[in-house]
Amino acid sequence: MRILILSLLFSAVSLAQLAAPNPAGVTMGHVHLIGADPEAQKKCWVEGLGGKPLKIGPLDFAVFPGLLVGFRKGDSSGGTAGSVINHLGFHVKDSAKVKSSLAAAGAQITRETGGGRNYYAIFPGGVEVEIGEDTKLDVPVKPHHIHFASQQIDEMRAWYVKHFGATPFMRGTIKAANLPGVNLSWDPASEPPLPTKGRVLDHIGIEVKDLDGFARKLEASGIKLEMPVTPRPDLGLKIAFLSDPWGGRIELTEGLASVK
Questions:
Q1: How many domains does the chain fold into?
Q2: Checking DSSP bridges between strand 237-243 and strand 249-254, what pairing results, if any?
Q3: pLDDT per residue over 139-177, tens digit each?
Q4: What is the DSSP string of the chain?
Q5: Which of 192, 185, 143 is nearest to 168 (CA)?
Q6: Which residue segment(s) compose the domain that 200 sits in?
Q7: CB of 131 within 8 A of CB of 118?
Q8: For residue 191, what is the domain's CATH number?
Q9: 20 or 258: which carries more pLDDT confidence?
Q10: 225-238 average pLDDT score
Q11: Is 45 buried (19+), middle (13-18) or exposed (0-12) by CB count in 10 A?
C-alpha cells in the first residue's frame, strides 16, 4: 500500500511539473478561464479531457503535463471566437474515448476531420478546443498549441520571439513559434480581433525565472506593465500582468514551477 501511495504521489508531482525553461528563463505556465459556472467548466477539463484537479490557495486548476488551466467565477464578455486567442489545441492518445467523455461532461463536439479522429469542442462559456489524435503519446493527453488570430502575424510572432525567446518555425502551412510546454500558432483574421481581457479566456500565464529582473527588461524595452510585480504569499507566487500590442493578456508568474 505504501508503495502504491508513493507511486500516485510521484505521478501527481510529475503531471504538475512545467517544462524546463528556455534560455530566456521562460516556460508555459497556465491559461485562466472566467465564467458564470466554473464547476461546469472544471467538469469538462477534468472529467472530459482528463486533467487532474488541483487547488492553489483559493484557485482551482486542472493540471496537464506542462500546463495548468485555471477557473474563476465571473462574467465574461464572450468566448474565444473573435478574440486574439481563437482556440486552444490538445493532443490525445485516444480521440474516440475523449470525444465520448467530453460529450458526457457537457462539451459540444463541432467540426470533425480525419475520419473523426480530429475535431473541435466548445466548452462552457464558448472556449473552443481543438483535439488531435496522436497514438504515440506517452500520456493520455497533452497540451499542443495556443492559436492566435491576427492581422499582423509576422509582427506578432516576432514580438513573442523577441521578448519571450520563442523559437519560430512553420507548422505545416501555419506560422508558429515554440515555447517550452506549448506551441504558439497564428491564423490570419478577417476582422481585427478583440482583446482577451474580460473574455472567457482572459489571459495566458507564462512562468519566468527572476520575475523582478524579467520585468525590468520588459520595461526597458518600452513595455508597460498593467500590474507591477506583486508577491502573492497565499498562492506561493510572484505575479505581474501585461498585454501584447494586439490585446493578448499575459500573466507573468514566478513560483508556479515549484507547485506540487
A1: 1
A2: antiparallel
A3: 999 999 999 999 999 999 999 999 999 999 999 999 999
A4: -HHHHHHHHHHHHHHHPPPPP-TTSEEEEEEEEEES-HHHHHHIIIIIT-PEEEEETTEEEEEETTEEEEEEES--S--STTBSEEEEEEEES-HHHHHHHHHHHTPEEEEEEGGGTEEEEEETTTEEEEEEE-TT-SSSEEEEEEEEEES-HHHHHHHHHHHH--EEEEETTEEEEEETTEEEEEEE-SSPPBPSTTSSEEEEEEEESSHHHHHHHHHHTTPPPSEEEEEETTTTEEEEEEE-TTS-EEEEEESGGG--
A5: 185
A6: 2-258
A7: yes
A8: 3.10.180.10
A9: 20
A10: 95
A11: buried
pLDDT tens profile 57-110: 889 999 999 999 999 999 999 999 999 999 999 999 999 999 999 999 999 999
* Spatial contact of 88 and 31, defined as CB atoms under 8 Å apart: yes
Percent of the chain residues topping a pLDDT of 70: 93
